[in-house]
Amino acid sequence: MDRRTLNLGIVALGAAAVVPRLASAAEPDLDAALAPRIEGSPDAKLTMIEYSSLTCPHCATFHTEILPKIREVYIDTGKLRLEMRDFPLDQYALRAAAMARCAPENRYFPLMDMLFKQQSKWSRATDPIAAIKQIGRLAGISGETADACMSSEPLLDGILKIRLGGQQDHDVGSTPTFVVGKEKIVGAQPFETFAKAIDDQLG
Fold first, then answer.
1. Is this prediction's pTM over 0.85?
2. pLDDT digits (tens, 9 = 90+) for 70-91
3. 130 Cβ neighbours under 8 A, 6+ residues apart
């Protein structure tokens, strides 16, 4: 997919109005919602950036089959930090990402794991927005808060800017794409591929 197609996709995503604005809903705290989402020790020597879409099956594969091992070996041991950056491929991935960013900070990664684990159910539901909100409730996000976040134009625009940054800074053209220190990995590669990239840079 070329850059022009991706940029047109951003326009289409931003124009999609699938969640009505509730007059009584408070605008989310943009500084908090758009702050970097990082898992792992701040003293970790190496950072892995992940660009993913919540409706991408390969991203779900990474989160359910590969990331748990990376956490066990590298993140939980303080060697690696993981930074999640949104790269939504459609309107429902965009809205789900917006809701996740309104979760309490300590519940963000568990919520993302849950959204990926249940991806095939909510993304194919008759009403995906209602299904997303139902998952959000398990993370303590009320229906009103979910609606406010998923319909907040400033928040949605901020997420799309993160996506655009991925294109411009790292030439991201598909999901998932990872920047492991100085090395770029495209796709849900086996754990061994990530381990080699990490170990080579940790020394």
1. yes
2. 999 999 999 999 999 999 999 9
3. none
